[in-house]
Design goal:
3 copies of one chain form a homotrimer. In chain A, strands 2-1-4-5 form a 4-stranded mixed β-sheet, with helices on one face. In chain A, 33% of the residues lie in helices and 34% in strands. The first copy, chain A, has one domain: Macrophage Migration Inhibitory Factor, CATH 3.30.429.10. The first copy, chain A, has 4 helices and 6 strands, in the order E-H-E-E-E-H-H-E-E-H. By secondary structure, chain A is α/β, with parallel strands linked by helices. Chains in contact: A-B, A-C, B-C.
């Protein structure tokens, strides 16, 4: 079930391969014992229009929201967040060394009872 | 007030008319007794960069989030989710028959007291 | 920490400068005593595919979601929402005078304990 959405300011696109970031984040999540690979969907959404802080032209951001089924322990959530944030921090290291970047991650729970899903990848991977 | 956002991996775009999907989902919601047509806003957001499960090149997803005013009964929420998911399942049937697709829907409530709105469509439709 | 995301139907793009809107919203937030300028990230996401209400071709929307750290008072949240909604209402005034537009804003809280961040803009602005 995990969904991870990365929103980013368009001005970082020339310097980073966002598809590669999605892949790294997907691998980091599926390396944890608590998330099945078949359910992981990571994507990045480019934000063409943005305004960050004092509007310095180098200002940029990447903001991640992870949505998971409700009910996991605080430890599991912390481990997932730590793992993802470490990957993203390494990926954006050149920006984090300069004074114009904001990186963030939030975990949100999907409420039980108001969620629907069909996944044809799970059976393929489980059979594999 | 209902907002429905569909995020989808860019690799399904050649095979599906996402505007048609938005229209079908909008019609399904407004056919229910609990949602006024004038307040319904459905949209789809293309995700150019993504990583799904084991990274098989055919892997794709469509993920829907419906936001509605808090306070509706569990029955109303279930009916809305069932109706939307049925439409989306029919729309993506060719993908759901193959082992590379994940379809999902979540309903989230908008908290009372921290919501603002102006809608000039309602009066037009109510007068019509 | 404040994140403000504006989703909008693509049909308003020819008539509005969405980057200018982001800048105005960012300025409005940072003019309040409760939000530090260095943490503000506003962006707009274009929705190419959409269906609004009765599908009249002029129908359009702009929908804002503000995410802030949990724990602020109802008064602070109301002041922030009022300020942002006033800016957006003025910006979209020509549309709000016509019977085809829906404008909305929701405030959501980021749960303590499941949030990670690094911000290299704060120290620069605090030193400035």
């Amino acid at each position: 079930m995990p969904h991870l959405v990365v929103q980013y300011s368009a001005n970082i696109e020339p310097d980073f391969d966002l598809t590669a970031l999605c892949r790294q984040l997907c691998d980091a999540l599926s390396a944890l014992p608590d998330f099945e690979r078949g359910g992981i969907r990571v994507r990045a959404v480019r934000c063409e229009h943005f305004a960050v802080a004092d509007d310095a032209s180098d200002n940029a951001f990447a903001d991640m929201v992870l949505r998971i089924a409700a009910g996991r322990s605080a430890e599991v959530k912390k481990a997932a967040g730590d793992a993802l944030f470490e990957v993203a921090s390494a990926f954006f290291a050149p920006r984090l060394d300069a004074p114009h970047f904001a990186l963030s991650l939030e975990i949100r729970e999907i409420m039980p009872g108001t969620s629907w899903k069909k996944n044809t990848i799970h059976p393929r991977l489980q059979a594999g």
